[in-house]
Structure formats: structure tokens, C-alpha cells
Amino acid sequence: MYFSTGLSFILTIFAAFMWGSWMQVVKHLKGYPITGLIFWLYTFSFVLIWSVTLIVAPMLLDGSILSLTKEYLPTIGRILMGGAMMSTGMFCSLTVMKDVGLILSVTVSGGVGVVLGMITSIMEEGVPESGLFMVLLTAAVYIAAAIISAYASYLRNEDHGVKNARNNVTLPLLGIMLVSAILTNGWSIGTATGTARGIPPVLTCAYMVTGSYLSVLIISLILFTVKKQWKTVFCIGASKTPILLGMISAVCHYGGNLISIYSMPALTAMVSFLLGRTFNLWTIFWGIYYKEFAGISRKTKLFLFTSIVLFLLGTLMLAITK
Known about the structure:
about 325 residues; 14 helices; mainly alpha
């Protein structure tokens, strides 16, 4: 059973809303390390997705999980790799954003990420029926929207008298940004591979989350042991709220992934990937909800409004092409 094109379009936008929402929990960490949040996010994601997979497998899979795994073994290896790359890229991007600031991070990793995602989708599925020009144009609109929204955030900080991060870029930091963009493209590698080669979406997501969790687990074992943070991460003697926030993040992050992957066959990986870029739009709306843009200048409002219009324009372009 697969969704219709129209329903898949709506569900993918909803998945983007979930992706743009989960990072809001960072505002409530109160000093808890964000790397700890990532650990719990992928731990609960692994439990969530495999629980769903085991429950729905008899209804959605033509065969057992074991038999399908053996049948698609080479492809599943690629999906595992994609999931591992994606979660590792998240660790890198968090480091980059702290050191070089939001604008440059979005400009480099976001722009490079869109290009890599498109190349990956085309390599797996070929040129979309709507034509390469329209896809490239839509991608350009989304990249412009992301950069402008990041700049609006920069101007907002200036309006509020908040010191912005200095974009003093060294070659090592530039290298980390590029590596982050390449690793985050694991999302496209895993999902496009599974979609193009006919692997059931729920199984694609299950092996994506397996790769993500194993990658994060290895990093966490090393990082938390070296920094002696295990007591902090497990909230021993402290409030367990960060663990709950990790659980909420998992539902939004990999729950959104499951919705997106299951909707992908009706849309193609290319269109699904581009629609997913609208997660930035929902991040803006959450910023407005939390009154982060209250009391901003007219110039900042102009850039903020322009970014919203561009995100909506890109979505409309995709809707027309489908």
C-alpha cells in the first residue's frame, strides 16, 4: 500500500514541519550538552522505528524481514552507510555552527548539501519527468531562501544587541563544513537508493536508523568516556527532562523520516528531497512563535518576509511540476 501523489506531497511537508520543530528542544536544555541530546535522539529513534517496523511488517512486507534483508543485502549495506553518514554529519554541523556562525554554516553546508542531494537523486533515479531546468530552478529558490533567512537571523541579533559569531574561517573549519555537507548527504544516498531499487519504505527507514544509531553510539562511547560525561548524559542525580526531550526529538526527527520515506515512491526522491528543505520555513515560524523576532527593524522584517515568500514559492513550483 502506497500513498497517492497528493497525499504524499502533503505528508512530506508535514515531515519537514517535524524536522523544523525538533531542534526547538535545544532551547530547554538548560546547560545539558547537546551531544547528549543527540545520543538520546538516535537511541529512541532506533527503538521507535524498529518497533513500528516489527508491528507493521506482517501487513506491509511481502515476506519476512530476514528474507527481504538477504534479498536486498548489497543495497541495505548502502542504506546503513547513508544513515551513519547523516547522523555523523549532524555532529559535525553542530560544531561548525558554534565556531563559524549560522550564516556561513547555512551558506556552505546548505548550498553544497542541496547540490549533492540532487546529484545523488539523479544518479539513482535519472532526470525527473518535470525536467532538469525546473528542478534546478526550485533548488536555487530554496538555497536563496535559506541564506536570506539566516541573514535575517543575523540582523535580528544586531537589532537585539546580541553579539553574532565571528566568521573567522580557517582551512580546518572550512574542511569541517564541507565534510559535514558531504556526510549529511547520507540522507539522500540511503533514501534514494532504497526508493530506486524497490526496497519497502519501512525497511529502508529501519536500516537508515540502524546506521544512524550505530554511528552515534560509537561516537558517544568515545566522546563521553574521554570527557567523563556519562553521569551527566544519563542525568544521574539531576532532572530527567533532557532524556524526555530526546524522546520528543526522536518522534519528530525519525518519525518525520519514516513519513517522508514512505511518501517518497509517489514523489520521487528528488522532489521529496527538495520539499524537505522547507524545514527551514518551519524553523522561522517557531522563531516567530517564541517571539525571537519581536522588536526587529524594518530591514530585518523585509529579509524575513522575503525568505518566507521564497520558501512558499519553491513549494508551489514543486506542486505545479507534480
